[in-house]
Design goal:
single chain, alpha+beta, Elongation Factor Tu (Ef-tu), domain 3, OB fold (Dihydrolipoamide Acetyltransferase, E2P), 4 domains, 6-stranded antiparallel sheet
């Protein structure tokens, strides 16, 4: 019975293997491609990878970085919005800098008030006090002098009428009173002369230094509002309210690098395509007057002719995919810039990768 069961199972296994082999030999037709792969339209054309950019007379898009670090307090624009040169884009928290500027302004005003006080000297009331002290010193000296004359006359008439000690004391008192009169005269002259010129100069410089410190703090306060450097369109905002940004930009958690806080471009009616020609293909690049190019949009069969603009005459490492300076590459490329009118009904945006064929 056991051998019979094994025989049946063996037969079933053979049949299953035959069925599997039969179906595995059936070739299913290949699926048609979603779109035709790009083809080189030129007999001696070269291929280059391109990236769509907003049209710029030189360079690339305007990357906006803050000149100070801080927390984003308010975003004043939206992506796709047109802005004019000088228009505010976003604001950073400026509470500490605002308080610093106010403190320096108060110190500058206090220094200015002290300078005006020095320049206004002598004060009328102080001069009147000095004059009164001089009059009192003159009267006291006159009184002491009269007293000394009386005792001197009495002593000369009768030495026994006035003691020698009393006479000496009167003479000393007169000398002291005379010196006090001289001090009062000099104090009156000092008060009348006003503030010393060196004190005024020193206060002028202190006030000037504090005023410039206030102007610097106030100018720095203006840096807490990012403004558009030129007319354009907001292509990208890489931060949110409450995020921390610095002169390095905004930290991107996906690339783990820093990106511009705001990217500005030109209106998208006219676009540029920056192609990166591999260094081994640079010798085959046609002369500028003969260059023709065609762009293929990935994910579609659409082809768009391009117009040559310029060659950026610097071969550099190809790091444009992630735009991170830490990326290590061995390939070097020559940037070539073309332009095109954005075709109606075609979704084409700055930053999009395209295939470009260059011929003559």
């Amino acid at each position: 019975m056991r051998h019979k069961l094994l025989f049946i199972l063996s037969v079933l296994g053979i049949l299953a293997g035959c069925v599997a082999a039969y179906f595995s030999r059936i070739q299913r037709p290949a699926l048609a491609p979603a779109f035709d792969p790009p083809a080189n339209p030129y007999a001696q054309g070269i291929y280059a990878e391109g990236i769509v950019e907003s049209a710029q007379s030189s360079g690339a898009n305007v990357n906006v970085y803050p000149e100070v670090a801080g927390t984003v307090k308010e975003i004043l624009v939206a992506e796709g919005q047109k802005v004019q040169k000088g228009a505010p884009l976003l604001k950073l928290d400026d509470s500490i800098q605002k308080a610093t500027a106010a403190q320096l302004e108060s110190q500058s005003q206090a220094a200015q008030a002290l300078l005006e006080e020095l320049e206004a000297q002598p004060r009328k009331e102080n001069l009147e006090v000095a004059e009164s002290q001089l009059v009192a010193a003159e009267a006291n000296w006159k009184m002491v002098e009269d007293e000394r004359n009386k005792q001197q006359a009495a002593y000369e008439m009768d030495p026994g009428a006035v003691s020698k000690d009393a006479l000496d004391s009167a003479v000393n008192a007169e000398a002291v009173a005379k010196k006090n009169l001289e001090v009062a005269q000099r104090q009156r002259d000092l008060t009348k002369a006003g503030a010393w010129v060196y004190d005024i100069r020193n206060q002028e410089r202190q006030q000037n230094a504090l005023h410039k410190a206030y102007l610097a703090a106030n100018a720095l306060l203006g840096k807490y509002t990012l403004v558009a450097a030129a007319d354009g369109v907001v292509l990208s905002i890489n931060t949110i309210v409450g995020a921390y940004v610095s002169p390095q930009g905004a930290y991107d958690t996906y690339t783990q690098g820093y990106a511009p806080v705001v990217i500005l471009g030109t209106p998208q009616a006219t676009l540029h395509v920056r192609c990166y020609v591999d260094e081994i293909l640079v010798p085959r690049l046609p002369a500028a007057s003969k260059i023709k190019a065609q762009m293929s949009i990935r994910g579609s069969g659409q082809k768009v002719p391009l117009e040559f603009v310029r060659v950026q005459p610097l071969v550099s490492p190809k790091i444009q995919l992630s735009d991170q300076r830490q990326e290590r590459v061995d390939v070097r490329v020559l940037p070539v810039v073309f332009k095109l009118m954005n075709p109606a009904g075609l979704n084409l945006y700055p930053g999009e990768l395209v295939d470009v064929f260059i011929g003559e």
